[in-house]
Write a structure and sequence with these properties.
Structural class: mainly beta
Mean pLDDT: 95
Largest sheet: 7 strands, mixed
Radius of gyration: 14 Å
Shape: globular
Helix content: under 10%
Distance between the termini: 37 Å
Strand content: over 45%
Oligomer: single chain
Number of strands: 11
């Protein structure tokens, strides 16, 4: 499994950004595909997951309403669209995948593979 993030950068508060994860080596329907982030001095935080196996989408409170996860099986990519960015959103953003377990939230069963991350900096 390989995961490579792209799309990070410096944006102004209130702007939008779209992160992309190029994926290979697994079938989307067998995995939960997720985005996490880690801000300086803070724990890694789950943001959004999508499980193709049952069509469910999961968002953390931090992401709900502003972030959108999407996937393109044909292109083997999955994206995180982020709107109304704030300085508190400054972090390294990671894509990750974990083996899909029907009936369970990905937040409960965790991730098996991670990308190296892409830095998002939101200036005030």
């Amino acid at each position: 499994v390989q995961l490579v993030e792209s799309g990070g950068g410096l944006v102004q508060s209130g702007e939008s950004l779209r992160l992309s994860c190029a994926a290979s080596g697994f079938l989307f329907e067998d995995y939960a595909i997720c985005w996490y982030r880690q801000a300086p001095g803070k724990k890694r935080e789950g943001l959004a997951c999508f499980t193709e196996g049952d069509g469910q989408t999961y968002y953390s409170d931090s992401a709900k309403g502003r972030f959108t996860i999407s996937s393109d099986k044909g292109k083997l990519t999955f994206d995180l669209g982020m709107n109304s960015l704030k300085p508190d959103d400054t972090a390294v953003y990671f894509c990750a995948v974990g083996g899909f377990i029907p009936g369970y939230s990905p937040w409960d069963y965790g991730m098996d593979h991670w990308g190296k991350g892409t830095l998002v900096t939101v200036s005030s």
